[in-house]
Amino acid sequence: MTDAQRITGGRSVWLWFTLWAVVGGGFAFCVAALLSVGLFVLPLVVVAAIVVGTRRGSAAGLPGLLTGPGLLLLFLAYLNRSGPGTVCNSTQTACIDQSDPWIWLTAAALMMLASVALMLLLRHARRRAQLRWPASSR
Q: What are the extents of the domains in the chain?
C-alpha cells in the first residue's frame, strides 16, 4: 500500500461508500415517491443492493447508506430555495408554497456528515485492529 492509499484509505473503500450512497438514495427515492413511481423503481434498487452487498469488501462502505437520503434532502432544500412562503414567478401561472430550505439543508448536512464520520471511525477502528493483530499471526 502506498503512502497516498494509507492517507486516503484506498480508493476502493470510497468506491464502496459511493455505491452504498446510490443504493441508499434509491431507497429514499422509493419511499418519497411511493404513491407514484416508487413501487416500480423499488425492484431495481433491491437488485442493486443485492449486487453491491454480495461483493467482497463492500461492507467497508456501508455508512454510505446514510448519504443517499441526505442527497435527497439536499435536493429538497434546492427545490425550496426561494422559501419559506408563497412564491410566484413571472413564468408560472400559479404560485406555490415553499417550506424553509434551511430545515432540509440542515438535515441533509447532518446525515451526510454523520455518514462520513461513521466511515472514518470504522476505518480507524479497522486499522487499530490490524495493527493489534497482524494477518500473519491469525
A: 1-83+114-126
Name the one residue in this structure whose C-alpha cell is 426561494. Answer: 82
- Residue 54 contacts by C-beta under 8 Å, 6 or more apart in sequence? none
- For 96, the 3-state DSSP assignment is strand
Distance in angstroms (rounded) separating the CA atoms of residues 110 and 5: 27
- Flag whether the pTM goes above 0.90: no
pLDDT computed for residue 134 by the predictor: 64
Lowest-pLDDT range of 39-43, 66-70, 113-117, 127-131: 127-131
Residue 35: CA atoms inside 13 Å, Cβ hemisphere, count?
0
Q: How far apart are CA 57 and CA 11, in angstroms?
A: 12
Residue whose cell numbers read 456501508: 62
Before 63, cis peptide (omega within 30)? no
